[in-house]
Design goal:
Distance between the termini: 56 Å
Radius of gyration: 20 Å
Number of strands: 0
Order of helices and strands: HHHHHH
Helix content: over 70%
Strand content: under 5%
Structural class: mainly alpha
Largest sheet: none
Shape: elongated
Number of helices: 6
Length: 160
């Protein structure tokens, strides 16, 4: 009976670990969508950086965005590495003889670092938002939420 419980716990934790790995170092929420532009610093005109061209940024704005990203790059890299390492440690704890409390503590530690990373990325988003004019902000927001930029929102659907 004990082996069965341990097996079930192991399967559940591996599934949870896989979910964490898929989520990468960010939280699964609408906030993550808002962070995507700051985590893809490409201005090469490719598909990843196309949204920058859509914003019609000035060279000064592009320089400011680059500076924002460069300032947080070491912190983002450090937290991402901490998350990867924590996920490996969680895996090892689940596969080993660790207590439930040890496994839970490691999971909480990873979650905390993920939140810290999400906060840094969100602060980048806010900093970028501050250098944009109102039209650029609208396009920026539409892109963050995977919408096509439109001059006017569609009329609300009527329900009978």
């Amino acid at each position: 009976m004990l082996i069965r419980r341990v097996s079930i716990l192991a399967v559940a934790m591996i599934a949870l670990s896989s979910t964490i790995a898929l989520a990468k170092p960010t939280l699964v929420s609408r906030q993550v969508i808002a962070q995507t532009p700051t985590s893809v610093p490409r201005t090469n005109g490719g598909k990843s950086g196309g949204w920058l061209k859509d914003l019609n940024l000035t060279s000064e704005q592009l320089q400011q965005i680059k500076q924002i990203r460069n300032q947080s790059k070491p912190q983002i890299a450090q937290k991402s590495q901490m998350i990867r390492q924590g996920q490996q440690e969680l895996h090892d704890l689940i596969a080993g003889t660790a207590t439930k409390e040890q496994v839970r503590d490691k999971y909480k530690e990873i979650k905390l670092v993920q939140q810290q990373l999400a906060d840094v990325q969100f602060e980048n988003t806010l900093a970028i938002r501050e250098i944009l004019n109102p039209e650029q902000r609208r396009i920026f927001a539409d892109r963050m939420y995977k919408k096509n930029p439109r001059p006017n929102p569609p009329p609300a659907a009527q329900h009978n």
